[in-house]
Design a protein that fits this description.
By secondary structure, this protein is mostly helical. It has one domain. It is about 80% helix and about 0% strand. It has four helices and no strands. The radius of gyration is 20 Å and the shape is elongated.
Length: about 70
């Protein structure tokens, strides 16, 4: 286990041990942080789209060029 994984495990264990009201307060504070909230939304979108088919950048740019004409 890496140091980062161990630290994460400690924080996760501590969070799970909090009473519900304190968990809610922590989550509220996290979501009040604009940068964190944006990062979280990005992670959710990435996870949701993880198994979608992909295409190369060259293909995307070619399709885009066709649409502009």
């Amino acid at each position: 286990m890496t140091t980062a994984e161990a630290t994460t495990e400690i924080f996760w264990t501590a969070f799970k041990g909090l009473p519900k009201k304190e968990k809610e307060e922590l989550v509220k504070r996290l979501l009040d942080d604009k940068e964190f909230r944006e990062d979280l939304m990005d992670m959710v979108v990435i996870e949701q789209r993880r198994h979608e088919p992909s295409r190369s950048l060259d293909d995307y740019l070619a399709d885009r060029k066709k649409k502009v004409k």
